[in-house]
Amino acid sequence: MMSINIVIRFDKFLVKKYLLWFLFCYLNSGIIQAEPIRLATTTSTDNSGLLREIIPHFEQKTGNVVHVLSVGTGHALRLGQDGNVDVVLVHAPNAEMHWVEAGYGVNRRSVMVNDFVILGPENDPAGIRGERNAVKTLQKIARGKHIFVSRGDDSGTHKKEMALWKKTRMKPSVTWYRETGQGMGRVLQMADELNANTISDRGTWLVLRSKLSLKLLFEGDPELHNLYSIIAVNPSRYPGINYMGAMSLIAWLTSVDGQNQIRKFKLDGQSLFFPTAILD
Amino acid sequence: MTGLLLTTQQALQLLFTGDPELWSIVLLSFSVSLKAILLTTPFAFLVSFALSHGKFTGIRIILAIFNSLLSVPTVVIGLFLYVLLTRQGPFGDLRLLFTQTAMIIGQMILCFPTLVALGYAAIQAADRRVWETARTLGAPPWFSMLTVFFEVRFALLAAVLTGFGRIISEIGISMMIGGNILGYTRNITTAIAMETSKGEFAQGIALGLVLLLLSFLLTALLSYLQGHKEFAA
Amino acid sequence: MNEPLLVFREIEKSFSGSQILCGVDLSLYPGKCILLSGKNGVGKTTLLKIIAGLEIPDLAKIEISGKTNCWKKAVRSVRKEIIYLHQHPIMFSSTVESNVAYGLRFTSLNRKQRREFVEEALEWAGLTDVAKKQAKTLSGGVQQRVAFTRAWILKPKVLLLDEPMANMDHESREQTYQLLVRMKSAGMSLVITSHFMQYFEGIVDQHFQLKNGALELKSKS
After folding, report:
1. Nearest to residue B210, comparing CAs of B2, B33, B1, B35?
2. Has residue B5 been placed in a domain?
3. What is the ipTM of this complex?
4. Is C90 in Cβ contact with B130 (below 8 Å)?
5. Rounded to a whole number, what is the distance in Å from the CA of A84 to chain B's nearest CA?
6. C154 touches chain B (CB under 8 A)
7. Residue A14: is its pLDDT beyond 70?
8. Structural domain count of chain B
9. Other beta carbons less than 10 A from residue C138's beta carbon
10. Cβ contacts (< 8 Å) between A238 and chain B: which residues?
11. Please, what sign has the CA dihedral across residues A46, A49, A50, A53?
12. What is the nearest CA distance from C116 to chain B, expressed in angstroms?
């Protein structure tokens, strides 16, 4: 029979062909001239369609390419911390401040604000319609043990929800509180199925409301304001981070042009985000 | 029920009106998976051949390892690669995370054991006389190997189709190290996951139909090849 | 007798503990035919395969024009001149023509020359009318002829045939016999294993029997 050595010799010849072929594929797999700007943002931001709408303006204007990764807030910050993205756009002010303090990010700028809403079934069994503030609505839900569906995933929405529960001084119980670890869209579907209450960002709600039987039961409390900020990943931590690109994006988003684009964006006829970088 | 029918109708509409975003997602799936399988197949079959014809110690163990790797969950591979490719990881400097290249690498790792194991089975089933005849007639070892491959080509093709089926329908790797970036690393499976989590079932169903159709085609091709093999001399 | 082409010395081979060949010597002469007989499973095929370079012996030496070398070093050059034919030859999944032409790929002939050789060989073996047929679909006897032609076209110095006439009808045996005669007169050294000595009367020059791992000379003409 044959010796393995002979096959391995052929292998070396193949290896050269391989490397060439691999290089070819690598080059064809979408490596563009300009280095992409990697933006990690939250699912709720992405789901609203805002970035889809306005990022191309930025790309055309500056010739940059932006790769948007939409994950939960916690994950987005983690990605920035690990140097896997260049810039993060999230809506969790407390977490953001700690993050910047820890040295992971620089140049935090406020970009826009929208709000959260509390949803529930049409007949409102918990009786939260017309309540005075958000904390009271949650208290009513807890007292009545009405099913509440939560993100449970360390996202901006979830952090807001947790902050509110803290203020109620009540602890949600497993009998009526469902922690799903899922994205906002999924959580809305589940709340719909279960005829439950939930808290959602207005954007996702507007996108999905025609498909759901849930209704908007409470809104307007300043507690429910949702502030978005953009932060560049600290370039001194990782050489090779696209810091210039990140700064370019931040500059545009907080410029008159960018802020106007944000203001112009409407979902279902409603303005969704209100620019905060330039106060007029 | 009407909701489902309506959504399916929308899905079919998306498919047949050539919705560009939808089809770019489909194209990406194929592009990534085809590259992965084409890059892996030659090397995998070489390994299969070495395992089949080699006379070194440890062949049994290696085969056992490959067989046990056949059903590794894709998220595990995805996670493992994420740890390797993250900036802080050993290969972070290659900046491969969230690129198509990373997806291709991940899928190559995924289909490699399948190709080796099924390739091995195919080559083992080959008549030893093919190799001996080729060698004695003066063919160098590499050409004799190719001759053996040709004789079991249907079984080898079945191995490739099986491997391809596994990688085009995986999500664990694509999601973890591709990042589901629109227009760049969003493939059929990650798009389905995302769209349905947004409640956009029409797109999800449309993509699901494409994937279903593909798996039907693969299965049909596979059974055609099996039948052919049975009747071949 | 003239100079031997090749001499194999001290061939030793064991399989899972049992010694099949213990120091076998065999000299191959051009234009001469050796018949190798012996019980089933005694090691005739193994011996042939070692000579052909298809099986690795535990120990062996090859003597070429007086110079002796260990098997491992010499086999690479020697192997090119020796072709082994299976008892039931396997056809490649292609036409008869393609099967016959297989080995020519590795010679330095150009396409035109190859085609000429193939045509000539097909005529030599009487295979011209089945040239374009799929070799696997043909009868055993025809396949045997294809196998011979496949080998003959490469003009090897040594041809090893494992039970060439087993399972053949009378007509096929006749045809095969004629082919063997022609190969012998073309100067090839033949080694044939068979149980049926009577089929090879007239062409066998030496008859050895493989017994207990050694060759016993039975007759010499």
Report:
1. B33
2. no
3. 0.91
4. yes
5. 6
6. yes
7. no
8. 1
9. 17
10. 87
11. positive
12. 19
Question: What CATH code is carried by the domain that includes residue B42?
Answer: 1.10.3720.10
What is the SS3 assignment for A239?
Answer: coil
> Is A68–B196 a contact, with Cβ atoms under 8 angstroms apart?
no
C183 CA: distance to closest CA in chain A (Å): 27
With CB atoms and an 8 Å threshold, state whether B86 touches A84: yes
Alpha-helix runs per DSSP H in chain A: 4-28, 43-48, 50-62, 73-81, 93-101, 134-143, 156-168, 184-194, 202-208, 243-253, 256-264
Order of strands, sheet of C67-70, starting from the edge strand that comes earlier in the sequence: C18-28, C6-15, C59-64, C67-70
Question: Best-predicted range by mean pLDDT among B121-125, B176-180, C2-6?
Answer: B121-125
3 state DSSP class of C82: strand
Distance CA(C109)–CA(C152), nearest Å, equals: 16
C-alpha distance from B155 to closest chain C C-alpha (Å): 14
Model confidence pLDDT, tens digit, residues A256-273 = 999 999 999 988 788 889
Tokens of A83: 């140097």
CA distance C39 to C211: 8
Residue C138, chain B, CB below 8 Å: the answer is: no
CB contact under 8 A, B136 and C89: no
Residues A44, A204 contacting (CB under 8 angstroms): yes
Q: Which pair of structure tokens corresponds to residue A80?
A: 């920035």
Name the residue with tokens 């977490």.
A95
Which chain C residues are Cβ-neighbours of A6 within 8 angstroms?
none
Q: What are the Cα distances from residue B51, in Å, to B39, B118, C153?
A: 20, 12, 33
Does the CA dihedral B60-B61-B63-B64 come out positive or negative? positive
Any A CB within 8 A of B99 CB: yes
For B38, the token pair is 């084409």
Termini Cα distance of chain B: 52
Which chains are within 8 Å of A by 3+ CB pairs?
A: B, C
Hey, is C187 helix, strand or coil? coil
Residue B109 in any domain: the answer is yes
- Token pair 């929308």 is found at B10
Q: How far apart are CA A91 and CA A110, in angstroms?
A: 10
C-contacting chains (≥3 CB pairs under 8 Å): A, B
Contacts of C54 in chain A (CB under 8 A): 1
Nearest CA in chain B to A26: B101
Residues whose CB is less than 8 angstroms from the CB of residue B104 and which lie 6 or more positions away in sequence, other chains included = A25, A29, B32, B35, B36, B39
Q: Is B17 helix (H, G, I), strand (E, B) or coil?
A: coil
Furthest C-alpha separation in chain B = 69
Distance between CA atoms of residues C130 and A236, nearest Å: 77
Q: Do A10 and B141 touch (CB under 8 A)?
A: yes
Whole-structure pTM value? 0.80
Residues of B in contact with C87 (CB under 8 A): none
Render pLDDT for A107-137 as a digit per residue (tens, 0 to 9).
999 999 989 999 999 999 989 998 889 999 9
Facing B88 at nearest CB: one of A6, A47, A83: A83
Contact yes or no for C80 and B130 at CB 8 A: no
Minimal Cβ distance to C154: which of B137, B143, B232: B137
* Domain C6-220 architecture: 3-Layer(aba) Sandwich (3.40)
Instruction: Determine, yes or no, domain membership for B8.
Output: no
| CATH numbers and ranges of domains, chain A | 37-113+226-275 (3.40.190.10), 115-224 (3.40.190.10)
CA distance to partner chain B, nearest, from residue A180 (Å):
12
Chains touching B (3+ CB pairs < 8 Å): A, C
Q: Residue C217 half-sphere exposure, CB side, CA atoms within 13 Å? A: 8
* pLDDT, tens only, B199-215: 677 888 888 888 898 88
Residue span of the structural domain in which B106 resides: 20-231
